[in-house]
Every structure is written in structure tokens, then in C-alpha cells.
Amino acid sequence: MSMGASGIRVESLPLRTQGRVPRRICEDRGELAVLHPVGPVYNPVYFDLHPGEDRSRGGHYHKSKTEFCYVISGSCSVEYLDLNTGEQGFVEAHHGDRITIGPRCAHRMQAVKFCQCLEFSADDVDYAEDTVSYVF
To answer: pTM (2 decimals)?
Structure first.
């Protein structure tokens, strides 16, 4: 997957009812999010983040896996370092956003406001072999 200028991208899923694309459907009865409409999904994980200085998650990168993270509620800040380009910085993600983190992009997330997320990948990799710790 091409990530453009850096190994991380945040996109607000569009509000629409049809199409084979990631999207959100918001109705009176509630919200439905189509996160990955085509192909397999591996290692789906739910996690939440509480605000606080020492409460981050991540602190690693993946050798070959592209990771997706959907923000169910709240907001978070993602610190990143693209090991391929040297680009580093922070991005913010909010309810309804999907974060895409490419291979060799070190990352860690911290809540701006209590945050609930769903993480998954379209790559079938051995997590233990593909994950490398990284200290920011």
C-alpha cells in the first residue's frame, strides 16, 4: 500500500450508504462503520485509551504489516517516525477516523479524550515476528 509522503495517514470515513469502500452510515437507530469492505481481516483487536502522561499504547513498528485503526469514540494523538523516510511528527484522530500505519512506521497512541479503537490488518503475519519495539 502506498502511504504517500509518510507511513501514516488519517482519513475521516465518508458518510454514505453504498459502495465497496470504507464508509460510515449514520441513522436515527445508530451508526454502522464498514471498515474493510473487500478481502480478509486479520487479528482484530479492541482497545481503549485513558488520558494521561504515561498511558500510551504502541511503542513499536511492524516489519511488513500495514495496520488499520478505527476510532470508535473519543480522540487520540499518534506519535510516529517513518523509518523509511525519517519523517516524524504527530497526527490526531477523532471519532469516525481510520488511521492507516504502513510497515516500518514506528508509532504510539495517547488519548486526548477517552478513546475506543478497533485495530486490524489485511496482512496475515506472525505478530511476534513482525513487531519490533521502538522507544520514542
So the answer is: 0.91
